[in-house]
């Protein structure tokens, strides 16, 4: 086969190929940035877009390593991909391979070559050379956009497809290098296949170096470095004596966590709040805090992305990169909500109170004024829309619950019915009134038959807790509740599903709610990936919202998944023969002191299971 390729002319000189690569790389980076920013500003940048951006580099690596084929090579398929990612990869590979060999792409390739050289290209080998450069440029552009920087085109052309951007191209400041306790490595000259030597990049000019020094206090810190810094400081902070107490923020925080008897989860959240303060202000000593820092920090919380730290990439971004990304987000995706800001302020209040108690000389600092005012709790139940029975029926007429085109196209009508987390979790919420995380994080063994009644046992486990239950509470104080399973769910096969899931060796009832880690992420080596899930049920948010928008024709009343909990509570509340204590035991409301009389809160036992079953069956069938 190879002998049949007659090579009549010499290959294109490396100088010309490099010129084409540089030109196309600049175009690719510019186009990708513009497309992504436009999609974000139009509110169209979804999980599907993220998924496509994650698999496209794999496709171009395959083109360069294994050539253009009709289907994605099996060895490029990651066994950890979920069904949607696999289908996206297969579809994009076919689309990109057709596009690469299309007449339009070849005409564009020839036109670009002519505009750069003034010559006409007609040799098939030369066209193949430039096609490879397009793949290489496209790959490097995708990687650079994801990493948040534009690579040096001359060096990156000669890197392997899966090689990371050289450290030298990132031009760290001297202070950044000292923070990592290692100088930036020297880059050896690289020799191209044609013999052209690419020298190391020149050192930064004095002006650039001065700028880097002035900015390094903030820009060289990342949340990942701060996490490591806090972790390393813990033992020293807790074993220190009053004579050796330091004004280090991390040390004071750990002593604050002990003084205030914070549970593990609370300490984790408070620590994250403190690290964000340090991330924004660049301060590491409590004695450095001034009123201006507090004001700047408070203002900055109003422009932070709401989804900051939901992606592992955020751990490695500098503060400037976070602000730059937030700048392109729509207003409703920027700024923390008032309750979250109040929590952040409280975390700083506790830190400063402990610092003063330890004798640190601090100026007068006004903190309480930074707290947003609490909204009135009057008619608070009206702030979130409640599903009506007809709306719930309309929702569950969507293809996810009636039959879809395929497992990867759940929003198009068809004959494929996939009974997974996307299918079961909303249905169970509509027949229990539970919270999303309570159901999404259930174990397969939490579906039981108690006193001959099929029952969901909603209780804390190693993966997630229950709202209102302390992480270290005694067995007697646990908020476990038994909710009988509605007959509609039994008819749909929930008992068989639970038995099958347990038989397959899955611990969780819905193992598909655990996102597969991206290649090379910090979650990749984790033995039990479910332990790293922070909010159970988030993985299917996009599918859920899209299903509601389609089924409810735009969802004008802005119903959400929590609206199903309100629907169950509202329905039972207006059933004259369902007592309030029964409803409370079913939906698990957390009452503040004084909400219940002593007769209904103390001098009573749990509602009998058969009484709960009768109440649950008052909920109408929705399918």
Keywords:
single chain, 623 residues, mainly alpha, hpI Integrase, Chain A, 3 domains, two-stranded antiparallel sheet
| Mean model confidence by pLDDT | 80
Name given to the CATH architecture of the largest domain: Orthogonal Bundle
Q: Which secondary-structure class do the elements indicate?
A: mainly alpha
Inertia-based shape:
globular
Largest sheet: 3 strands, antiparallel
Strand percentage lies at under 5%
The CATH superfamily of the largest domain appears as Intergrase catalytic core
Distance between the termini: 60 Å
Low-confidence blocks of residues: 150-156, 158-219, 590-603
Which CATH first-tier class of the largest domain would you pick? Mainly Alpha
Total number of helices: 25
Secondary structure: number of strands: 7
Strand order in the largest sheet: 5-6-7
Write the CATH fold name of the largest domain.
hpI Integrase, Chain A
Domain tally: 3
Query: How large, in whole angstroms, is the Cα Rg?
Result: 29 Å
Overview of the molecule:
This protein has 623 residues and is mainly alpha-helical. It is 48% helix and 4% strand. The longest helix is centred in the N-terminal third of the chain and has 28 residues, at 14-41. It is globular. It starts with 13 loop residues before the first helix and ends in a 7-residue tail after the last helix. Mean pLDDT is 80; it is low at 150-156, 158-219 and 590-603.
């Amino acid at each position: 086969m190879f002998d049949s390729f007659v090579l009549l002319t010499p290959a294109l000189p490396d100088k010309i190929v490099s010129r084409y690569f540089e030109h196309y790389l600049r175009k690719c980076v510019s186009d990708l940035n513009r497309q992504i920013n436009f999609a974000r500003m139009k509110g169209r940048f979804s999980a599907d877009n993220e998924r496509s951006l994650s698999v496209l580099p794999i496709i171009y690596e395959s083109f360069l390593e294994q050539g253009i084929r009709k289907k994605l090579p099996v060895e490029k398929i990651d066994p950890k991909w979920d069904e949607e990612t696999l289908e996206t990869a297969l579809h994009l590979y076919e689309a990109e391979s057709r596009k690469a060999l299309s007449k339009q792409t070849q005409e564009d390739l020839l036109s670009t070559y002519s505009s750069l050289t003034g010559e006409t290209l007609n040799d098939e080998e030369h066209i193949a050379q430039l096609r490879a450069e397009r793949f290489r440029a496209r790959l490097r552009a995708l990687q650079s956009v994801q990493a948040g920087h534009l690579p040096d085109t001359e060096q990156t052309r000669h890197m392997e497809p899966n090689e990371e951007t050289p450290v030298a191209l990132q031009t760290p400041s001297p202070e950044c290098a000292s923070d990592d306790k290692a100088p930036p490595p020297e880059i050896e000259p690289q020799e191209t296949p044609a013999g052209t030597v690419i020298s190391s990049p020149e050192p930064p000019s004095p002006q650039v170096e001065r700028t880097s020094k002035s900015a390094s206090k903030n820009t060289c810190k990342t949340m990942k470095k701060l996490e490591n810094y806090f972790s390393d400081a813990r033992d020293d902070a807790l074993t220190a004596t009053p004579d050796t107490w330091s004004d280090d923020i991390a040390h004071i925080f750990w002593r604050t966590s002990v003084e205030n008897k914070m549970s593990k989860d609370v300490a984790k959240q408070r620590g994250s709040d403190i690290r964000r303060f340090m991330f924004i202000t660049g301060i590491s000593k409590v004695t450095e805090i001034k009123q201006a820092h507090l004001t700047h920090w408070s203002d900055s919380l109003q422009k932070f992305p709401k989804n900051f730290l939901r992606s592992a990439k955020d751990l490695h971004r500098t503060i400037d990169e976070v602000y730059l990304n937030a700048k392109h987000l729509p207003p409703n995706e920027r700024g923390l909500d008032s309750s979250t800001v109040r929590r952040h302020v409280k975390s700083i209040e506790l830190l400063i109170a402990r610092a003063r108690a330890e004798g640190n000389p601090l100026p007068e600092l006004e903190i309480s004024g930074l707290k947003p005012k609490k909204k009135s709790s009057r008619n608070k139940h009206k702030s979130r829309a409640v599903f009506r029975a007809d709306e719930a029926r309309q929702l569950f007429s969507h293809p996810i619950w009636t039959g879809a085109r395929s497992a990867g196209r759940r929003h198009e009508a068809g004959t494929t019915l996939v009974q997974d987390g996307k299918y079961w979790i909303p249905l169970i919420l509509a027949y229990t009134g539970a919270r999303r995380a309570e159901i999404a994080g259930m174990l397969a063994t939490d579906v039981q038959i108690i006193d001959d009644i099929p029952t969901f046992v909603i209780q804390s486990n190693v993966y997630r807790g229950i709202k209102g239950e302390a992480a270290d509470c005694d067995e007697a104080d646990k908020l476990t509740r038994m909710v009988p399973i509605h007959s509609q769910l039994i008819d749909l096969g929930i008992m068989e599903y639970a038995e099958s899931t347990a038989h397959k060796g899955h611990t969780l009832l819905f193992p598909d709610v655990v996102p597969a880690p991206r290649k090379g992420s910090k979650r990749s080596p984790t033995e039990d990936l479910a332990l790293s899930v922070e909010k159970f049920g988030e993985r299917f948010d996009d599918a859920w919202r899209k299903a509601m928008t389609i089924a409810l024709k735009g969802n004008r009343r802005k119903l959400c998944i929590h609206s199903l909990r309100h629907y169950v509570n509202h329905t039972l509340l207006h059933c004259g023969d369902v007592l309030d204590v029964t409803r409370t035991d079913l939906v698990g409301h957390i009452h503040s002191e004084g909400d219940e009389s002593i007769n209904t809160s103390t001098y009573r036992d749990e509602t009998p299971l058969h009484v709960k079953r009768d109440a649950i069956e008052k909920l109408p069938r929705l399918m």
